[in-house]
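Quick one, probably user error.
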């Protein structure tokens, strides 16, 4: 993975303005969202991945959003199955 660095060694030269949306040594919310969606691109992706190696708070944010997305997908899947079951029941019920 990348080099692990102490948070105190991070500076604006490590994450130049305009190339990264790091805020107060944490990954910005929009970057967490893009990371979880798999939409974050290099070189910014590499910076975020490296930061996640050393920042428990940002890893927690990623984990929470991952869980939220998984729960949301499960709920949608459940609704789709319910809708399909209801439709099938209506079709089968109308044939009797």
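Nope, works fine. Designed sequence:
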């Amino acid at each position: 993975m990348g080099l692990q660095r102490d948070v105190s060694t991070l500076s604006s030269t490590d994450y130049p303005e305009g190339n990264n949306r790091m805020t107060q040594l944490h990954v910005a919310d929009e970057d967490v969202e893009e990371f979880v969606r798999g939409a974050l691109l290099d070189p910014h992706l590499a910076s975020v991945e490296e930061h996640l190696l050393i920042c428990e708070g940002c890893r927690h944010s990623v984990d929470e959003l991952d869980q939220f997305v998984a729960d949301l997908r499960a709920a949608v899947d459940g609704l789709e199955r319910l809708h399909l079951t209801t439709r099938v029941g209506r079709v089968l019920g109308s044939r009797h």
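The CA atoms of residues 81 and 87 lie 10 Å apart.
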